[in-house]
Structure formats: structure tokens, C-alpha cells
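User: I'm curious whether this sequence folds into something compact or stays loose and floppy. Could you predict its structure so I can see for myself?
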Amino acid sequence: MRPNVVLYLAVALTASCGEKEKQGVAASDGDTEPGPMVPVMETTGTTTGTTTSTTTGPGTTGTAPTTSTTTGDAGTTGPATTTGETTGAPPADSEGQMCQFNEDCPDTAQFCVFGECRDGTEGDPCEFHEECSAAAPRCIMMVCYDGSEGDPCKTDTDCAEGSKHCVYGKCYDGSEFDPCEFAKDCMDLMSCENNLCV
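Assistant: Here's the prediction. I'll summarize afterward.
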């Protein structure tokens, strides 16, 4: 058993025996011999030894352990220092909090995606467009994107107004030397030659 459990049991036994005496009941069931000594151990700090002590209270038929504290060379340390990194569960008002449903998430990270609360900014995981914020409203390949140049896409609607052409799976604005499949993939008055806007 752990020392603190032994100590707890010893104290509880002592209290129980004392309570029986107050009620006029013998503390032991016919035993007149003292019971075994129970060691009392220090459970916190650093000590140089272990103390065992027993005492016989008035009117008891056995020995009852009492607690005593030994003080040795207990070392102390200063407060822990941090390096700016955080560990453990994230604060309740930030991304990364565990969830099952959107209702489990705070207002600052209102989307529950793959078991974690997210705010839907660009780069956050998603399953649907609705799990992305207005700043990055497109869920492409399970990631929120804003549809800017170079972002992945499936159709032109996945791309933002400034880079509205989806060519070979990426958004482009159709400027000179951008890839293209058709003339519509290029800016006005440009053509698509050899799969490049010119």
C-alpha cells in the first residue's frame, strides 16, 4: 500500500476506537494485548529519516498510532520558468479545444472539425464550406482557403475574385505566363498559347 493510504487507515482506526469508548463499547473485541505498530511515514518533501511513534490513550486496551512529522533537509525550488510554449489543454476560448458538436465550441472557434474547435481561418481543417470563416470560405481538399492565387481548387467558383481561374487544380488571375487551358483562363485581351497566357 502507499504510505499515505496506510496513514489514513491508521488515523481512521484511531478515531473509530476513540468513538467506541465514548459510547461505552470496548475499543477491542476481547484483545488485551497491543496490536501491531503502524509506521507513520512522511509523504511530502525530503526527509533524512522515518519516524515511528505510538501512544496509549487513556482507557484504551491497545496502542493507537499517532502522526508525527519529521523535518529534515527539505529542498525548495523557485517558481517554474516558461519558454513561451504552452502544454496541456488549450484555453477554453481558443482553437484546439476538444468537441463533438459545434455547440461544444466557444464563439471564437465555433466549428467542431475532426474533434477539435476551429475558427475556420485559412489552413484550418474542414469537411464542408460551412466550417470555414468568411475570410477563407472555401473547403478544398479538407482545408479552408480564401481562393487567392496558388490556392487549390476544383472549379472557378473555388477561386476568389482576384484570381478567378481554376487551372490544373490551382487558382490563377490569368496574368502573363500563368498556365491556361482556354483563352477564358487568361485576362481580357490575352490568349492561351502552349498552355500559357500571352
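Summary: The chain has two domains: 3-65, 102-197. The longest strand covers residues 111-113.
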